[in-house]
């Protein structure tokens, strides 16, 4: 597949991964987590189909600091095309953060070689915590991935 279903775009976000980042939201998520922050983009077929080349052109013209977060919906539900996008972005020198609701063990191994940061875990309303940066609930984790295969769990607690 050479197309992704895109829900939207946000520029200059400080809440979607380390640093100031642009965010590409992909349409569709089958997890249906109660209290989901992006409930309005869960249903497939309501976004815009864009080719990988169109997305790359769009991102390059708007994301000048080369820091991008790919969120959703659930990006990994469009894995075949997402993989192609991640490869292209990585080749162009982008710092990539991927937000997924999947558990760490469910994520295809190749993902870890294509992103710099990854947020894992679905949103759990009973574990909601506004004192943890970049995530919505305590079960969610953010990892920094280095080129040498090291996966570092980040401490996201906000200082008092």
From TrEMBL:
Molecular function (Gene Ontology), one example: [formate-C-acetyltransferase]-activating enzyme activity
Cofactor: [4Fe-4S] cluster
Alphabetical keyword list: 4Fe-4S, Iron, Iron-sulfur, Metal-binding, Oxidoreductase, S-adenosyl-L-methionine
Record EC number: 1.97.1.-
UniProt xrefs under PROSITE patterns: RADICAL_ACTIVATING (PS01087), RADICAL_SAM (PS51918)
Enzyme class: oxidoreductase
InterPro entries the record matches: Aldolase_TIM (IPR013785), NrdG (IPR012837), Organic_radical-activating (IPR034457), Radical_activat_CS (IPR001989), rSAM (IPR007197), rSAM_sf (IPR058240)
Superkingdom in the source lineage: Bacteria
Reactions accelerated catalytically: glycyl-[protein] + reduced [flavodoxin] + S-adenosyl-L-methionine = glycin-2-yl radical-[protein] + semiquinone [flavodoxin] + 5'-deoxyadenosine + L-methionine + H(+)
CDD domains: Radical_SAM
Pfam families per record: Fer4_12 (PF13353)
Entry similarity comment: Belongs to the organic radical-activating enzymes family.
Function statement: Activation of anaerobic ribonucleoside-triphosphate reductase under anaerobic conditions by generation of an organic free radical, using S-adenosylmethionine and reduced flavodoxin as cosubstrates to produce 5'-deoxy-adenosine.
Name used for this protein in its record: Anaerobic ribonucleoside-triphosphate reductase-activating protein
